[in-house]
Amino acid sequence: MRLTRYFLPTLKETPTEAQIVSHRLMLRAGMIRQSSAGIYSWLPLGFNVLKKIEAIVREEQNAAGAQEMLMPTIQPADLWRESGRYDDYGKEMLRITDRHERDMLYGPTNEEQITEIFRAHVRSYKDLPKLLYHIQWKFRDEVRPRFGVMRGREFLMKDAYSFDLDYEGAKRSYNRMFVSYLRTYARMGLRAIPMAAETGPIGGDLSHEFIILAETGESQVYCHKSYLDYDALAEEIDYEGDLQPIVDHWTAQYAAADEKHDPANCPVAKDDLVEARGIEVGHIFYFGDKYSKPMGAEVTTADDTAVPFEMGSYGIGVSRLVGAIIEASHDDDGIIWPDAVAPFTVGLLNLRVSDDACTAACDDLYDKLRAAGVDVLYDDRDEGAGAKFADMDLIGLPWQLVVGPRGVKAGTVELKRRASGEREELSAEAALAQVIG
Ligand code: 5CA
Fold it and tell me: What is the secondary structure of 160-219 as a DSSP string?
């Protein structure tokens, strides 16, 4: 993509309304534009990252045996009256009346909607287990939307739902999601720690929050320091095998968010305890028949009795992750995208577009990178070198390939790794080989 054609409205000034670094950087890097409090338009650069994150979430959900579907954003209120949550949800729910005076709502989550689908279509234990998910916008009329996309009113969530015959089956589904979450965050360059959690308005008996440690996190969290050395990608996962040992490994040490932490009874010695702020990037719940029972969603067992489905639900904050990754990975100059979610792999900087040899060398590199399937953002603007360096550091692409008239004469370009700041002078061919490799 040529920057002269790309829509990238970067800002020089630091927006005053933004209190945390990810919000400031997302506004400055032209990733989002606020529409109203907690509601954002996603501009091309931000949308590109959102899609990359979504793709990783999707791959790991599919690998864990979940099937993708899509449920609507607008739901009938009657479904929520059946579960009893229509009144419970309070002011966080955006309630809408259609032209026929029917009560509707913009879904804050989809337990009722999916339970209705299973009630209508699944009758026999032979059809279980099932795991379904969608990636869909949600609306929660938060009292205090803040920190940009981290606590929005409209936000993108991956929500999965499991249906099983009994507790043992439900626990296996829970474990599948638990393990796939560890991999999902690790692939994005994040260390997410599963912590025992309260179930809140979703309800249920068993629940874990997946938390990444960051100074600006909204929750106070406590965990054993050994979690800082855990590696979620160390082993291949067989989702058809027994996942309990992996879940046990990840839950053996103490890890709890504030509401579950009791300083008087904390089993970890002070020196081994990490006390930090955390961002909740996912939350999983087992809640048995909390929805299936009141909604009359039943399945017939092998001995022909009808029992309510055993269910769980599993959320990932897809849009929140964009901010969370920036909180975890930035410096004074801007964002540092982990390779897996970077909007482009390489930024190609033409330091003097008026110099024919320099521009020819850049055009050639641009064509070769694209031919090799590398996502490249080509800064072909007629701007000073300082402005180009500043914008590239701000938007944080993993590699910067810098081409200037002096280097072109000498047959060299400069290759910079954004994360480490390492620079190397080398031939165009050698630079290409590194980036493509
Ligand atoms: N139905 C369940 C699981 S599917 C559920 O809704 N869980 S949740 O309330 O915990 O939300 C799942 C994830 O969505 C959270 O872990 C968080 O990462 C993200 N999330 C929740 N509220 C917001 C918000 N206001 N803005 C951005 N992300 C949010």
Answer: EEEEESSHHHHHHHHHHHHHHHHHHHHHTT--EEEEE---GGG--SEEEEEEEE-TT-SE
